[in-house]
Structure formats: C-alpha cells, structure tokens
Amino acid sequence: MPVEKTLRSAVANVFNTKEGANLDPSDLYVKAAYVDEGPTLKRFRPGPMGRGMAIRKRMCHITVIVCEKAGKGKAGKVGKAEKTEKAEKAEKSTKNVEKAAKKA
User: Which fold is adopted by the domain 2-103?
Assistant: First the structure.
C-alpha cells in the first residue's frame, strides 16, 4: 500500500510539470525504486528488576523514479528533473556493482 501510494505520487508529480503535461501514462516506466533507512525513534519500556528496556521504532524512506520511454518525447527522461542526490548516488553505485560483476 505505501509503495503504491508513492508510485501514484511520483506519476502525478511528472504530470504536474511543464514537460509532463502532454504525456501519455502508458509512456512512463519505473526507472528505479528503492527503500532507505529513515530516522529511528528511541523509546523505553519497563523491564525486569526495574530496568528500562530500549525499543526502537524504525522508519524508512521510499524513493520511486519515473521516466518516459526513450524516443517518445523531447528529452526522453522526464523523471530526471525529479531526481535527488540520493537517487544519483544509487545509480552510480548500481553501475559500479555491474562493472564489478562483469570483471568477476
């Protein structure tokens, strides 16, 4: 459910840009989707013998990058404007992993 909501939001963001206003939804695809660790809330509950037991409530960040299929429009990469620094780092690390896999 949260991933679907994030995907719908990413598609809506593309259509709300100047370049994406005249796109067809069937021309879009998910270029990258990943989940990163988010902040952790630290709480304490009573434990045995009067001690406090730590409870960590973990959260995450969901990132979805939506692009236009190549050859369909002007630039072919509408989602590029939506990219964050994290997304660019993830792409670089993916390319490095692929290079290492080819060498092995």
Answer: Ribosomal Protein L22; Chain A (3.90.470)
